[in-house]
Design goal:
CBS-domain, binds pyridoxal-5'-phosphate, single chain, 16 strands, Rossmann fold, four-stranded parallel sheet
Length: about 450
């Protein structure tokens, strides 16, 4: 063995630097530091997860020599697994949603893996979804091992055993907040557990894209209606068991435009050649720092690099077409839609209101659903049909409270969410609720959207 050489590329995973941001966060009191996990050999922090998942499967006898590793992956876990498979002599089959960049797909194929593409716009339980397809392929493939990063404890454990101790060794725990994007939750749950065992006061900040269901679930305990967004690797439309939401102290939401503009700034101003979820994590952490005004040390994990996003985030044409550069999106944003009804009063019910009162409210204002608030915070939705059902079945009386009838068939957006993203939202949701911070600032019904779009088409 040559002096200074490593036995294999797998020994080069980890030992990534932590760097202080110089420019993009100059306006906040907090100091912001980033851990450059995008410098791992197969391109992301998922290299650590891949090694741990394969080691664990080998130990348990779930993966035998010559076996096939199968995974439903948005790319990075696939790259890590493909690298481990190449070194240790396994086959790989990856199942991916169709919104993933061509570069990600080509890279996996470059490692010799098979890639199966599935439609994004179907429910997770649909047989065509990438979750269902991967399960079917596992059943049909001899000597298959399903890596299952969404439910495999070896995913968060990788961060508990590798990422977090490394951060601790590098920093001695000299930071107040740890921030990361929320995907499977492996990073946040694993790191949070390690950090809190050593420094219980440490704050864990999760960053979630608008369209994902985490934010609303953390705030209200409701699984509202997810909708699509462009940033890759973060946000979910179901709750993976690898995500421990109880570990979170704070959660912030970011939209695609914020993520992508920050990603470009990180590269151009800080020299950090990173991907979209890195922009998301930094934009989210800056929002948090702006809101607190505190002087804290915030450490952000940067998951992957820029090269996979050349045809998207780093392509001006793509950015312009999608309304992410200066040119406004032709369909406008939610604030434009709300501006069509300047004097419209927001009608809301309150937790504890009686059924009788809310029926009166719906009748008086000629509306068929209302957001239900507790203080300023939205706790759910109440629709005419819910009241009707309970009264028809004689399950409630008019003087009962509405609390047990409040439901989750709504989606939440912010005033800067692009209207184009609302295109399929009413297939699932009864109502779109517009929130600024935690407060409800407006609602959008199906007919509001139809009228707005019809006017734009005429113009
Ligand atoms: C680019 C990117 N960013 C962030 C994440 C989220 O990390 P985690 O799954 O640990 O929550 C992922 C996970 O797939 C990712 O690929």
């Amino acid at each position: 063995m040559m002096k200074g050489a490593l036995p294999s590329i797998l020994d080069a995973v980890g030992h990534t630097p932590i760097v202080k941001l110089q420019k993009v966060a100059r306006h906040v009191k907090s100091e912001i530091y980033v851990k450059c996990e995008y410098l791992n050999p197969a391109g992301s922090m998922k290299d650590r997860v891949a090694i741990n998942i394969v080691d664990d499967a080998e130990r348990r006898g779930l993966l035998r020599p010559g076996g096939t590793i199968i995974e439903a992956t948005s790319g990075n876990t696939g790259m890590g697994l493909a690298m481990v498979a190449a070194v240790r002599g396994y086959q790989c089959i990856f199942v991916m949603p169709d919104k993933m960049s061509q570069e990600k797909i080509a890279s996996l194929r470059g490692f010799g893996a098979k890639v199966v593409i599935c439609p994004t716009a179907v429910e997770p339980e649909d047989p065509r979804s990438y979750y269902s397809t991967s399960r079917r392929i596992v059943e049909e493939t001899p000597d298959a091992f399903y890596a299952n990063q969404y439910h495999n404890p070896a995913n968060p454990e990788a961060h508990y055993a590798s990422t977090a101790p490394e951060v601790w060794e590098q920093t001695g725990g000299d930071f107040d907040v740890f921030a990361a994007g929320m995907g499977t939750g492996g990073t946040l749950s694993g790191c949070a557990r390690y950090f809190k065992e050593r420094k219980p006061g440490i704050k864990i900040l999760g960053v979630d894209p608008i369209g994902s269901l985490y934010y609303e679930y953390v705030k209200t305990g409701r699984l509202t209606k997810p909708f699509s967004y462009y940033v890759e690797g973060i946000g979910e439309d179901f709750l993976p068991s690898t995500m421990n939401l109880a570990a979170l102290d704070e959660i912030v939401r970011v939209d695609d435009k914020e993520c992508f503009l920050m990603t470009r700034r990180l590269t151009r101003e800080e020299g950090l050649f990173v991907g979209g979820s890195c922009g998301a994590a930094v934009a989210g952490a800056i929002k948090y720092a702006e809101a607190t005004g505190m002087n804290e040390k915030i450490l952000i994990l940067l998951p992957d690099g820029a090269s996979k996003y050349m045809s998207k985030i780093f392509n001006d044409e793509w950015m312009r077409q999608n309304g992410f550069l200066d040119a406004p999106d032709p369909l406008g944003v939610v604030a434009d839609l709300l501006a069509r009804h300047p004097g419209r009063k927001l009608i809301t019910a309150r937790r504890g209101d009686t059924i009788r009162k809310v029926i009166g409210m719906l009748k008086e204002h000629g509306i068929s659903q209302v957001p239900v608030l507790d203080g300023d915070r939205m706790v759910g939705l109440l629709a005419e049909v819910d009241l009707l059902n309970t009264l028809v079945k004689a399950e409630s009386k008019l003087d009962d409270t509405i609390d047990s009838l409040v439901e989750s068939d709504y989606a939440t957006v912010t005033p800067s969410t692009r209207v184009v993203l609302l295109r399929n939202i009413f297939n699932d949701a009864k109502l779109v609720v517009v929130q600024e911070g935690d407060a409800v600032s407006g609602i959008i019904t199906k007919i509001d959207l139809i009228e707005y779009l019809a006017e734009r088409r005429v113009a």
